[in-house]
Design a protein that fits this description.
With 346 residues, the protein is α/β, with parallel strands linked by helices. It has 11 helices and 10 strands.
């Protein structure tokens, strides 16, 4: 019998563990990707752009002047949000960084070249959202790009806020309030855009799509299922918002940034995080590439009248399943309004 502490066996164990981690992580990624039996479908009438899966945010915004425009980015203090801020500010936009605390927002703004304004918006604290959006409203300026970027993922155990599952609150309901309270500023812009980060992880949502009788998450809690439900909710919100905005110059679209190693993965088991750092470069996007679709949808002149769609790799796609359920979108809007009514603009 070989000793486990011998150099050879340590190397074998490490190699085997890394391979197992990589395989497990790859399977996890594959489970939230479109399979070979689900060919890519493009929506009719939506222009295709010249960019793709390897384009960076700097590339998709090249030559675009955002001077005089204002963007607000939730979760702007790290990861995709911080890179989105950098790119938009670098093209002349005034960027409002919304973070969980004013200190985090101030630190992020200090590292960005260009005009920035910090604001505290904690998405799980509804009074904080009211206070933060009131501060933004007090600026008295239109918002050309409202980018609802922040999110959490894969909480290993059930956590609740206001008696509701935390991923649903953070990823959907908190942004539902932000969108409601800042929509007048977006509509005040010549061509305001709401951009919401969804995910191909919507495929993990329960069969019913949104479990309205289980928003507490107490029945059959699974981290991925609840994350998938919240990401499905992000796009259903966009579909209904786009209907509400029909006939106006204001648009709403959702984006899937891709598989990226950011703070979003901080709740994954440690071995998966280590595996991602070791082999993630083989299939994950960089932050610079991951922000491309967001920045493209937020700024591309060709998309000025495009609303209600889902974008990935800088181009529109037709998502499947419950993502196309307009009745579910309308019901989600009604339930979300009821759950957050004290914090919404009348």
């Amino acid at each position: 019998m070989h000793r486990l502490d011998s150099p050879i066996n340590r190397r074998q164990l490490l190699a085997g563990g890394t391979a197992l981690a990589g395989a497990t992580l790859a399977l996890s990624v594959a489970s939230c990707s479109r399979g070979e039996d689900k060919p890519l479908v493009r929506p009719e009438g939506v222009p295709l752009g010249p960019f793709g899966a390897k384009s960076t945010a700097d590339e998709v915004t090249q030559g675009i002047d955002l001077t005089g425009k204002t963007a607000l980015v939730t979760g702007g203090n790290s990861g995709l949000g911080l890179e989105t801020m950098r790119v938009l500010a670098g093209h002349g936009a005034h960027v409002i960084c919304a973070a969980r605390t004013i200190e985090k927002a101030q630190e992020a703004c200090a590292g960005i070249q260009g005009k920035t304004t910090p604001v505290a918006i904690e998405l799980t604290d509804f009074p904080s959202i009211v206070a933060g959006t009131d501060a933004v409203r007090a600026l008295g300026i239109p918002i050309d790009m409202l980018i609802l970027n922040a999110g959490i993922m894969n909480l290993p155990e059930l956590e609740q806020v206001y008696g509701l599952e935390k991923q649903f609150v953070t990823n959907h309901l908190g942004h539902f309030i932000v969108g409601n309270r800042l929509l007048p500023q977006v509509q005040a812009a010549p061509q305001g855009r709401v951009v919401v980060l969804s995910s191909s992880g919507y495929m993990w949502a329960p069969e019913a799509g949104i479990e309205f009788d289980n928003l507490s998450g107490e029945r059959d809690y699974k981290p991925n299922k609840m994350y998938g439900q919240s990401k499905l909710a992000n796009y259903l919100y966009v579909r209904q918002l786009a209907k509400n905005l029909a006939g106006t110059p204001t648009t709403a679209n959702a984006v899937h940034p891709g598989i990226i190693m950011t703070n979003l993965g901080r709740n994954f088991p440690q071995w998966q995080q280590v595996a991602a750092k070791l082999i993630g470069w083989t299939f994950m996007k960089s932050v610079e590439v991951g922000t491309a679709t967001t920045c493209y949808v937020a700024t591309a002149p060709a998309l000025a009248s495009v609303s209600g769609y889902y974008f990935a790799d800088c181009n529109p796609e037709v998502p499947d399943g419950q993502m196309q359920n307009d009745a579910l979108a309308a019901q989600l809007w009604q339930v979300s309004t009821e759950l957050t009514k004290p914090y919404l603009l009348s």
